[in-house]
């Protein structure tokens, strides 16, 4: 017997609406995970540089992230789809990833102490501590990239599993809000002298930061796993052959043609857009700090080593705090003004809160158009940022990009979740991976992550080529980095053109 109610004019049974607190608990883990990503991307490189890692070696270290996302997450997704654990399909992988992430994050922060301890053995040569420190840091950095994959894939799959189809947009909106809240939190605490306030969490700023973020991740994952219950999969719903899991990438190659056109277009847009997001996320901090530092040194009238020049770095941090604030604000505003689907209007026609929100919605603004416009706007930001003539203009450009970030963190996941949920109802997607003509939820989430991870590898190679060509022209480093950022314009425009092909069928969304 179904506990849902039937949508008028439709044969599909709709589940009861989930409350706001349920959706917050469902998506809480993503907020904690984003804190880890922000610390990794914004503070990991300066730390690795401080222990003596060269820039080429750091590039190889951080390339582990895209490679792990491209290959490890689809593997974990297929494995979780076939899991018969009494704890559910997703939660065991989320908890396992959480343990690995916390161990690797703390190990990375204390890599210097661990390296020095290892170098004190009787068989160690004198002066081996720096080499041991680098080896330990590289090991934990790779483990960190691996540990985040089952968390991310498990949480995204759990949202699709537990949120009703007609609330996939709302659930993805809450995921986006908590992600941006985690982003903002991490940037703010990164600017605070934490060892002075929390000396028991570590002796250095990076140690204290990693310890605090580990606590946040623990609480957020515990919230999701405790309050979101999963049904125990029946044995006949699973197919746990290790051979089938090991060959899951081969299965994807054969089954990709069976994916709906809507999902294929979403993957195309994501592939193109992440070729533009990668240089922005990885190189904008470096670029902005360089021009800010140069501006402050120029304002002194000489290349001074006065402590005042460090204000350049502080200004860079302020720009990304503004970027996160704009993104968080847009995460709350945009879902309220985007046109609701006909299905939502039928399901929530007696909900007074929904009716009030519906009055503020713009009739012409659909999710497809919002995503397309945000990509065009992001292309403009990437082109204009290296041309900015003042710090204020550059800061404003980065803040505007926060609006595009909010759309990217919400719309593709909402569209994908709705499409998977719809196909699950129509085509019985819970059949075993090896016996069904369709891919299951975890596998599709993994393929979606593959579409975001592979372009990051390509963008890294592209950036290396630009550095190699322009670096030989005796150009300043900020000019070279500016061209790396500007190279993301064309992929962003291409992604917007792909987004125009998405179905505008708002009656189904």
Question: What does this entry show, briefly?
Answer:
Helices cover 72% and strands 1% of the residues. It is built from 21 helices and 2 strands.
Key words describing this protein structure:
Growth Hormone, Chain: A; disordered N terminus; sucrose:proton symporter activity; 509 residues; transmembrane helix; MFS general substrate transporter; mainly alpha; 2 domains; two-stranded antiparallel ribbon
How would you explain this protein's 3D organization?
InterPro entries: MFS_trans_sf. It is a multi-pass membrane protein. This is MFS general substrate transporter. One of its GO terms (cellular component) is plasma membrane. The chain crosses the membrane at residues 21-41, 53-72, 93-114, 184-202, 209-229, 315-335, 370-392, 450-471, 483-500. With 509 residues, this protein is mainly α. The protein has 2 domains: 17-229, Up-down Bundle (Growth Hormone, Chain: A); 255-509, Up-down Bundle (Growth Hormone, Chain: A), CATH 1.20.1250. It contains 21 helices and 2 strands. It has helices spanning 20-50, 55-62, 64-81, 91-109, 111-118, 129-162, 168-190, 194-197, 205-227, 242-246, 248-255, 261-299, 311-337, 342-347, 352-359, 367-384, 391-408, 411-427, 441-471, 477-486, 489-499, and strands spanning 5-6, 13-14. It has a two-stranded antiparallel sheet with strand order 1-2. A hairpin with a 6-residue loop joins β1 and β2. The radius of gyration is 23 Å and the shape is globular.
């Amino acid at each position: 017997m179904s506990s849902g109610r039937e949508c008028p004019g439709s044969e599909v049974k709709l589940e009861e609406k989930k409350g706001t607190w349920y959706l917050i608990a469902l998506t809480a883990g993503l907020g904690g995970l984003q804190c880890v990503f922000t610390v990794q991307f914004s503070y990991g490189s300066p730390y690795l540089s401080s222990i003596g890692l060269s820039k080429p070696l750091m590039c190889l270290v951080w390339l582990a992230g895209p490679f792990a996302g491209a290959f490890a997450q689809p593997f974990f997704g297929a494995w979780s789809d076939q899991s018969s654990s009494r704890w559910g399909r997703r939660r065991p992988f989320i908890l396992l990833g959480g343990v690995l992430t916390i161990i690797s994050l703390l190990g990375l922060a204390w890599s210097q102490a661990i390296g020095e301890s290892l170098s004190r053995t009787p068989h160690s040569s004198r002066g081996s501590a720096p080499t041991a420190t680098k080896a330990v840091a590289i090991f934990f950095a790779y483990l960190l990239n691996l540990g985040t994959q089952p968390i991310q894939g498990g949480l995204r799959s759990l949202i699709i599993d537990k949120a009703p189809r007609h609330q996939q947009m709302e659930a993805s909106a809450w995921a986006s809000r908590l992600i941006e809240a985690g982003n903002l939190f991490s940037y703010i605490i990164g600017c605070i002298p934490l060892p002075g306030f929390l000396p028991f969490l570590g002796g250095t700023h990076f140690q204290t930061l990693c310890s605090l973020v580990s606590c946040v991740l623990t609480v957020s994952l515990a919230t999701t796993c405790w309050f979101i219950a999963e049904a125990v999969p029946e044995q006949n719903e699973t197919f746990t052959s290790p051979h089938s899991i090991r060959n899951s990438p081969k299965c994807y190659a054969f089954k990709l043609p069976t994916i709906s056109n809507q999902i294929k277009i979403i993957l195309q847009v994501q592939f193109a857009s992440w070729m533009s997001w990668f240089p922005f996320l990885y190189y904008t901090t470096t670029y902005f700090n360089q021009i800010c530092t140069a501006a402050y040194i120029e304002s002194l009238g000489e290349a001074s080593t006065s402590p005042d020049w460090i204000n350049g770095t502080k200004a860079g941090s302020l720009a990304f705090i503004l970027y996160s604030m704009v993104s968080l604000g847009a995460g709350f505003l945009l879902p309220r003004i985007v046109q609701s689907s006909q299905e939502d209007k039928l399901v929530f026609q007696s909900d007074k809160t929904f009716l009030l929100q519906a009055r503020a919605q713009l009739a012409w603004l659909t999710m497809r158009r919002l995503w397309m416009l945000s990509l065009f706007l992001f292309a403009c930001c990437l082109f204009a940022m290296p041309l900015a003539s003042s710090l204020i203009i550059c800061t404003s450009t980065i803040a505007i990009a926060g609006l595009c970030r909010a759309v990217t963190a919400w719309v593709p996941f909402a569209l994908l979740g709705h499409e998977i949920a719809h196909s699950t109802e129509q085509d019985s997607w819970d059949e075993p991976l090896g016996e069904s003509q369709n891919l299951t939820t975890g596998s599709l989430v993994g393929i979606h992550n593959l579409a975001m991870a592979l372009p990051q590898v390509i963008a890294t190679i592209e950036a290396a080529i630009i550095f190699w060509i322009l670096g030989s022209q005796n150009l300043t480093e900020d000019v070279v980095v500016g061209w790396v950022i500007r190279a993301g314009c064309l992929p962003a425009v291409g992604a917007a053109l792909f987004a125009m092909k998405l179905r505008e069928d708002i009656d189904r969304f």
